[in-house]
Design brief:
3 helices
Length: 84
């Protein structure tokens, strides 16, 4: 996956996240659907973090003269433990 594909995936995930956040308000009376919305939002957040991490890895590898295609998607546990 190249940088453009990753950036496009990020854009799609963000659009879905925004849509789900709007839907969450509409689903506020439906407890089951609201929980499903929250589960999907959490999954989106993790995938977004993984995509951003991969994009940063690729850019760093390129900047240091290394092959960006050797960057790997890190597991959710690793990415979610990063300090901001």
């Amino acid at each position: 996956m190249d940088n453009e594909n990753i950036a496009e995936r990020i854009e799609n995930l963000v659009a879905e996240e925004h849509s789900l956040r709007r839907q969450e308000q509409a689903d506020s009376d439906d407890v089951e659907q609201l929980e499903e919305d929250k589960r999907r939002l959490r999954a989106l957040e993790v995938e977004l973090d993984q995509c951003w991490d991969l994009l940063r890895q690729r850019r760093a590898r390129s900047a240091s003269g290394q092959d960006p295609d050797e960057a790997q998607v890190r597991d959710a546990e690793t990415v979610e433990r990063y300090q901001q």
